[in-house]
Structures are given as structure tokens and as C-alpha cells.
Amino acid sequence: MLSNNMDTTTLRMDEKLSDQTAVVRYFKMSDPVTLNVGGKLYTTSISTLCTYPDSMLGAMFSGKMPTKKDSQGNCFIDRDGKVFRYILNFLRTSHLDLPEDFQEMGLLKREADFYQIQPLIDALVEKEVELSKAEKNAMLNISLEQKKQTVHFTVREAPQIYSLSSSNMEVFTAHMFSTSCLFLKLLGSKLFYYVNGNLSSVTNYLDDSNHLTLDWVADVNGLPEEEYTRQNLKRLWVVPANKQINSFQVFVEEVLKIAMSDGFCVDSSHPHSSDFLNNKIIRLLRYR
Fold first, then answer.
1. Global confidence as pTM
2. Higher-scoring residue by pLDDT: 236, 28
3. Are 143 and 175 in contact (CB under 8 A)?
4. What is the CATH number of domain 10-134?
5. pLDDT tier at 156 (50, 70, 90 boundaries)?
6. What residue spans define the domains of the chain?
7. What is the DSSP string of 38-88?
8. N or C: less crowded end of the chain, CB within 10 Å?
């Protein structure tokens, strides 16, 4: 029989034995329990996990659903362990606390839906509306740098015969700041580095949620493909157009297309529109 006292209430949990059979064990609501969520360990109380009885966690830790165990006897949940911290904190406080540079909103929404925590789902919807309002007006600053650099490499002319060669290459750097972190994520869905034979979104190289620095090179005449990898030289591509960016003019053109599709326009005072593609400092604005 269940007691009305939260600290003395006992609940059933399944504990797997070596033969994979399950037995019923009784826990107090205040008892600590360790969860293994996707390889990350969290320790909390059963009462916290049962904050919302209609959720999946509430069902699991009230004995309504079986639980799995890892090799150490911890309750195992095969879900994303990184964002579970935000779910657990919500269970503790009933308040959604996310860092300003949080980049996993989509994943957190999917996890909240999996655990069927309706108050958290509602809080995430409200958070997205709040972010959307804050994102309406935005600024994008781009600072461009270009330099020539000599690259040295070996060329195989015959089996066991190599010659030393060198060539000049164009090295580009773009420092980008936007008050809209969502725009930089949009940019990351279009611009990709070509590294080690693979395409990698530039968002993997974000300095923080509002700053992105891009470094890349144009194709180098005569440079073997393996030398790009060995010397860690990145090339920049626009996807899905499969267009390589070998000049600042092409870069500015492509970024401008992406920015204008997201509601940005060229700041009328900086730079002058007649010389836009030749400027090294560019500012775009968005008003909604």
C-alpha cells in the first residue's frame, strides 16, 4: 500500500539479473537512482523522474513500464545523453533553462516528444516563438582578408622518383558576425568545406553562436589531391549547387543570395552599392 508521505512511498522497478529475467524491487521516492542515458550518467531521485506521472519517465519509474539495466546496474535509456541534462533540470524545476548559444533545439524537441513530457514540449514551443521574435531584426557584418602564399609539395614523376615543386595559392579569410544565430545555421546548410575527401558544414567551425570565421584556399595549380589533406588546406563549396568558391567575388555573391533569401538587404551606407562586390567590409541588415 502506498503512503501519502513522499519520502516513504515505495514504487516498483524492474531489476535485470544475469539470466535476463526481471524481479520486482521496491524503492522510496526519495531514493537516488543513476541513469545511463546514451553513455552519460545522471543521478537523481525517483520523485524527480516521476514529476510528470503521464510522461514516459513517470511510467518507467512508477513500475508501469519495464526498465533496462547496463552492466553496472544503472537504468539504461538509449537516447541522447547530452541534451538529457536540460530535460532533467526541467523535471527538477519545471522551468526551461537553456544557454544563449544553445544549438540543439530540434534535438531537444524530439527528445521531449519521446519522453512525452507535455509541459516541456509546451515550454519549447514558447521558447521558439520568443527566439523567432528576437530574430526578426538582424545585422550581418562580413570582414574579408586575402593573401598569397607559397605552398611547397612533392610530385611523383615515376615509381620512387619524386621532384620538389612549389606554387602560389590564394588564401581567403572571412570573419562573419550576425545577431541572428539562426542565419549562421542557415549559412551552414549551404556552405561546406571540402576536407579529406568529404564535405563538412561550416557550422562545425562556429566560434560561437554569433561568430563564424571561414578560412579556405582556391585550387592550387599542380597540387596533388593528397597534399590538400596533408597540409590541411580546406576548399569551400556551395551546396546543393556544387559550386566551388575560388574568389571573394564569388563568395560575396553566394552569401548575398543566401542572406537576401532570409530577408537581409544591403546597408545603404556601407558599402556603396555600386562597389559592393569589391569591398572588404560588408554590412547587411534585416528589418521585419
1. 0.53
2. 236
3. yes
4. 3.30.710.10
5. confident
6. 10-134, 138-286
7. TTEEEEEEHHHHTSSTTSHHHHHTTTSS--EE-TTS-EEE-S-SSTHHHHH
8. N
